[in-house]
Amino acid sequence: MYMNNMLTVGSEFDRENIHAALLKRSRDLSFLADGDDYHFCVTPGRVNLIGEHTDYNNCPVLPFAVDKAIYALIIPRKDEVIRVADLNETCDPIEFVITSGVIPPFETGNWGNYSKAAVNELLSFTSSVKTPHHVTQLQEDAQGFPWLKKGFSLVFYSTIPRAAGMSSSSALVVLHAAASLLSNGIGWDTPEDRILLADICRKAEWYVGTQGGGMDQTAIIHGKEHQAVKIDFNPLEVAHVPIPEHVSIVVAHSTVEAPKTQSAMDAYNRRAIECRLAALCMNEYFKNTYGLGGISFIGDITPDVLGRSPEWIDTEVAKVLHEEPYSVQEIAEQLNMSPEQVNKQFCIRKDGSPFPVPVEGFELHKRFHHVWTEWKRVEQSAELLKQGDMDGVGRLMNLSHESCRDYHQISCTELDVLTNIARENGSLGSRLTGAGFGGCSVHLVPKMDVQTFISKLSNFYYHDYLGLDFKEAKENIFVVNPSEGLHIM
Ligand code: NG1
């Protein structure tokens, strides 16, 4: 996330036309010669139905892959070069070479870092099998045969809106991991392969500096038509939940571009740090009070880990954190560490520079409250979805938005106005989707009412509130259909 000028967003035209255009451009660029092998790959974006900012806590999420995707032609090469170009030339082409050790990134903000992120992570895997054919034959941090030897040329075309919370960046990471695997003869056909591939792509994305979880990459890889993907992270598991035919899912962009700056990345990472610290304070409490422990992330606070009932745990966690923000000094006392150790271990950016500690202190209580309640909303939503109770799912989506706004503090005025207007005009549930701070909202709407809903939202939000014309409104609001994840055509 947060990259400038990331992808070209094109009008939807059918796959055959896209395929033909990618072939032509690959030939024009001399990426493809007669007789060369190539693969036509589809990597979708994702929309999250519910479960926001829970993934990096190892708590579950309920997203789905969408029918907006990056379409790419991948041409395996015999050398170690990687060359990538955008069909519409909106992004500058990139080129780099597979080298041993860490691949040095392009300058911050260059979209090509998502390509490097995937290749860089794959390079930390070797194989005990000389010629591996499956992702599960790869091993991390193990001595074995280096398998990533061949690069590729790639031309892509994207229909995923950028900086909108639809994971165009993770789609790029997954695409480049897939391209590397394909070019080196490795497939991901088994469920185990796909789980490992999702985990590799999750870690890969840390290369750009966000401390994100694995929701995006897992949804992009595991998406299925008409289904949401319930993802658990403790351990990583996926289950598909059908979305009933009688509802439509509408995505509406607030038009506030989720910012792409260091400060936006800090705002996201601040929440990851706060959640981590809240979990560690919980661990100290359970250890000192009851001799229990084993909590590193909020997702570890379970009956299995603590050996106590859910009701007991609920009562106990409510006692641990106070509502006022915490200073580094106080956190250090709670964790039996020095303030310097807290800063060194938790308040550090990817590039090694110090993380700007918020002057008002860290909001441990608020962040914990959001994640703890959102976790329950995800579990309940998955159950209600199975039962086809879409009113129930909608109610939980509304509560999720309130919690994102008041406790995780990731909404903005426009997203609040937009979701309110949506609720007053026929949505069963409306909330921000993705990292927040702008970007898109997601709405559950009875299928038969969807056109009326869209025209009311166009009128009341885009026209009356933002002062946009109807053409501009139309570009910002669309129905998305749960779709197949990463696949080769
Ligand atoms: P987006 O909306 O794609 O920037 C980010 C994180 C997710 C998740 C959501 C919030 C990355 C790549 N993505 O998504 O892991 O934490 O925010 O739920 O860091």
Topology:
Layout: H1 15-28, E1 39-50, E2 62-76, E3 81-86, E4 94-97, H2 112-123, E5 125-127, E6 138-140, E7 152-158, H3 168-183, H4 191-204, H5 215-222, E8 227-233, E9 236-242, E10 247-253, H6 262-290, H7 303-306, H8 310-320, H9 328-335, H10 339-346, H11 364-387, H12 390-406, H13 413-424, E11 429-432, E12 440-446, H14 450-465, H15 470-475, E13 477-480, E14 487-488
Parallel strand pairs: 3-7
Antiparallel strand pairs: 1-2, 1-14, 2-7, 3-4, 5-6, 8-9, 10-12, 10-13, 11-12
Helix pairs in contact: 2-3, 2-4, 3-4, 3-5, 4-5, 6-11, 9-10, 11-12, 13-14
Bound molecules: 2-acetamido-2-deoxy-1-O-phosphono-alpha-D-galactopyranose (NG1).
Q: What do these coordinates show?
A:
A hairpin with a 7-residue loop joins strand 3 and strand 4 (94-97). It is globular and about 70 Å long. Helices cover 41% and strands 18% of the residues. It contains 15 helices and 14 strands. It is an alpha+beta fold and 489 residues long. The chain starts with 14 loop residues before the first helix and ends with a strand. Helix 9 packs across helix 10 and helix 13 crosses helix 14 (450-465). The protein has a six-stranded mixed β-sheet with strand order 4-3-7-2-1-14, sandwiched between helices. It binds 2-acetamido-2-deoxy-1-O-phosphono-alpha-D-galactopyranose (NG1). Residues 1, 48, 52-53, 55-56, 165, 167, 169-170, 205, 210, 212-213, 215-216, 434-435 line the site of 2-acetamido-2-deoxy-1-O-phosphono-alpha-D-galactopyranose.
